[in-house]
C-alpha cells in the first residue's frame, strides 16, 4: 500500500487505482459518487479494528477493573487525537463524542434553550435541515444569505428590535451539502469581534460536509467557531460517530443545561430531597450522558491510522478531490445537445483555484434538460443510474434553503407542490415545470479519474440528444396490420409483485371495474414498516408462484427458489373471505399498510404457517394481507393512470377503421373519471396491456446494441396483444397502442388510460429473479418522453358493445384468442 501523492492528480490517482481493489472491494463495478452522504470504509480499517476488538477486553468505563481502565485511557487518548486531527489546542478546546453531527447540534440547542431569556438564532440559507430545525427552539430566528451576513458583519445586527438581552446563536455550514459551496471560516471571529456590545453571539459551524474532503484547521483560537459539529463516517466511512468540538471560552452556555444522566453527574439525592451535583470540570464529562459509544470511539483510533496510511493527510485528499471535481464540472459543462443547448444546468458555482476564497468542495449539483429545455425527472435518472451502478444522491438532499434558491422555488410554490402531493422521495419530481430537487455527485478520497469520466460518459450516452431537434417517432399504421390483432395471453398477479398466474386457453376470465378478477388482491406487508413488499427490493418475489385453484377454492402458493427445510413446499390460502383467518381487529389495533406510498387498510392473515412461509422464503419478516374489492375508506384505492403528453402529440390525420367505434370516445383523462375508477393493489390502473409488436421492436433495439432480448413477462402485463405473422413480412406497428383511446375485445369495450411509466423493475427476469440492465437501458434511450420512460398501456373496462341489459353486460369476460379492434 502506498500513500498517494497529490498535486497534478495523476500520482494520487494511480495510487488509488492500485489499492482500491484491495481496500474498497465493495466499490468493484460501481461508481460511488455520494461521499457527501457517507464514505465507503477501507477493508484494512475493518481488519485492524477486528484485531483490536479480539485482542483486548474493553469494559464499560466506570470502574477500576483493568478492562474498564483500558477503555477510559484509550478514549481519552483518542479524544486528544481528534483534537490534533483538527489542529485544535487541547487547552482551548474539548471534544464531546455524540452519535452524529445532528446530535451535536441538539446538545448546543438544548443548552441555549435553557438560558434564562432563551436565545435568538441566525442561520445561513444553505444550512442543512438539521441546522434549520434549531429555529423552532429560538425566540426569534432569521435565515440569511451571504450578502445579508456580510451586511451584518459590516454594520447592523439582524436581530433589530428584539432586545439586546438574550444571547444569539449564529450557525452556518463550512460547506453546503447541496452544491459544495464553502463559506468563510472567518465569519465566526468577525461575529465575535464586531457584535454590538452587550449581546453575546455564539457561533456554530457545521463542518459535516466539509471535513470529508478538506483539512479543518482550528489552530487559531481567535477565529475558531465556538461549536463545531461533524460526523466521522463522512470522513472514514466507519465508525458511526460524531463530535461536538467546544471552545472552552463558550462553555458557559452549558451552565444552564438542566438534564443530567448517568455519567454526567457526581451525586444525586432523590429520596426525601431532590438535589444533585453535576460534574463541573471537563465539558465532555458534563455532556456525554449515559454509556459512551466505547467501541465506536475505539474504532476511531483505527480509522485515523488507516486513513493516514492510505491517503497521507487531509490536504492530499483536498488536492485530489479538487482536481477531480474540476474535471467533473468541466465534463458536465461541456455536454451540449445536437441543437447546441446545454445538457446540464449546474448549480455548483465555478470552482476556482484562488486560495483566498473559500471556494467549492468536490461536489457538482445539477439537473438535466432535454434539447427542448424540458427537465428530466430525477427518479428516472436515479433508476438508470442505479442500473449502471452509479451511486449518486438525488432530490432535496436535506438542504431546503439551498434547493429553494438554486431552483428558484418560492415558498408558495413549495407549499403548493406539497399540497398537490409532492413529498421528499416521491416520483413526481417535476412540478409546474420546475424540478424539485437536484442530482448531487460528490467525490471523496478514493474517487478516481475513471469514476468521473464514466459518469460524464453516462450522462452523454443517455441524456444528450444528438439530433438538432427532438423528434417523436410517428406511428405508421396500416389497417391490415391491426385486423388480426388478438388476445395472445392473459396473466393475473394474485399477490402484488409475485409471479403471475397464466389464464388457461379457453377459459372466460371475468373482467371487473377494478381490473381482471383476482388480480392484485393480496400483498405481502413488511412486519415492521407496514410497507407492501415489491420486487424492486425483493426480486425473489418473482419466484413466489400463486395458482388459483377454483376446484379446491384455494390460492396455492409455492416457491421456485430454495425453500428452507423446515417450511412446507406450498401454502394454501382460502379464496373465500372467512373472517376467522384474519387478525381480529378487536384484539389488535387494525394496522395500516402502505402501497406505493399510499396509506391503505388491508386484512392481514393470522396464520403463522402462511406468514412463516413467506417470511422464510423471502428472508424478510412479512405477513400476507388481502385487499378485497368493495372496501371503503382506506380499504379502497383509485386509478392513477392518465394520458401522457407524448400520446397527445399531433399525429398525422388519424386512420379510421371501417366499422370501428360508432362515435369518437371522449378524452379519457378527465379528473372525475379518474377518481371514480377503483383499483385493488395494482400500482396505477385496473388493467395493463402490452403488444408483442412493441416487445419485438424493443428487442430488436436491444439486440442491435449487443444486448439480450427480454421476455414479454418482464412487463407484468395482464393482457398481451399479438397478431399472427403478417403477409409480406410486415409487422403490426410497434407502439401504436399509445395512440389508441379505446379497444374492443370480443364484445366488450375498454378505455385506454395512458401509457405505463416504467422503472428498473422490468430488469428482473421473472423466471430466475436475476437482474440485468435490459430492457430499461434501451427503453431509456428509445422510449423516453418528457424525461420519463414508458412501455405498455393502462386501460379499464367501459362496457359491452351491445349495451346494458345484455348477457355480456351481466358477466363481462375476456378469453385468449379473442379478436381485438382498436379505436382512436
Ligand atoms: C451530513 C450532514 C449533516 C448531518 O449529519 P448527520 O450525521 O446526519 O447528523 C449536517 N450538515 C451537513 C452539511 C451535512 O453534510
UniProtKB/TrEMBL annotation:
Catalytic reaction equation(s): Mo-molybdopterin + L-cysteine + AH2 = thio-Mo-molybdopterin + L-alanine + A + H2O
Top enzyme category: transferase
EC number: 2.8.1.9
N6-(pyridoxal phosphate)lysine: residues carrying this PTM: 234
Taxonomy, superkingdom: Eukaryota
SUPFAM superfamilies xrefs: MOSC N-terminal domain-like, PLP-dependent transferases
Occurrences of domain MOSC (ranges): 663-823
Entry keyword Translocase: no
Active site, UniProt feature: 398
The protein's name: Molybdenum cofactor sulfurase
Organism: Lasiosphaeris hirsuta
